[in-house]
Amino acid sequence: MSLPIAIEVYSKRRPSYSCRQIEWEEIVSKSSSLSVELTDGIAILTLDRPDKRNAVDGPLIADIEDFFSDPPEATRVVVLTGAGDHFCAGLDIAELKVMGAAEAQATSRAWHRATEKIQFGALPVVAVMKGMVLGGGLEIAASTHVRVAETSAFYQLPEVGLGIFPGGGASARVSRIIGAGRAVEMMLTARRIPADEGQTLGLSHHLVGGGEGLNKAMEFAGRIAKNPPFANTTIINAVPRIAEMSISDGLFSESLATALTQLSDEAQVRVKGFLDKRGGS
Predict the structure, then answer these.
(1) Strands across the sheet with 132-134, in order?
(2) At what angle do helices 265-280 and 229-243 cross, to 10 degrees?
(3) Which residues are catalytic?
(4) Which pLDDT score, from 0 to 100, does residue 13 have?
(5) Mean pLDDT, the chain, as a whole number?
(6) Distance between CA atoms of residues 32 and 109, nearest Å
(7) pTM
């Protein structure tokens, strides 16, 4: 199995957002339901439908795909959050309808394209989870790399109540986070999992108090933004793939990733600086 280190640059659709410079801060206005604020290399991407508990409709999932296909050039890390009291209530029920198999698969694949670009893009993504993290909201969060939850967060995969199998990546990503058995239990029972249990299961990496999620996420994002971009990109793309390989293939792929990152200009400058400083101490 080969290890794709280089990141594909997607250009299937022209991005719908526009950028303007405001001295030290860049504001990106993308759509009425997705807002972006860029400062110091950190893009704060907000699902901005608080009246719908940030439920995702077709245009919003397309906007998410567009953003991660062609993010603002200065971006080094993304913080993904939701406006108001909730992260995301999943699929907008206004879009729920009886579908044929082909249409249902097309909708599922649209979600897959967007979440693939989150998980396997060039930028690390830190999620701020609060309130509802349901269905598609959990599927989006599961595609991010660092997940911070507030104590108000709760998780649920409720699709079975409608006779539907989750179509936004839960069976592939949530099952890898918490294990296939627990993912099956979540889907069959559709029970709500509170923040503390979610932390124990691994749905979140860090659990903080109410209203503290964004500050903690920005703290992590600031730390990540200081890393060489190629090292960040290699980590988020290589580790999940290596985890799917045999030990032998994984170790060989690891050696390639190590070699490639050490060839980068920034790594060589940093290593030389470290050695010079150590030699002069």
Answers:
(1) 132-134, 154-156, 193-194
(2) 110
(3) 139, 159
(4) 35
(5) 89
(6) 24
(7) 0.88
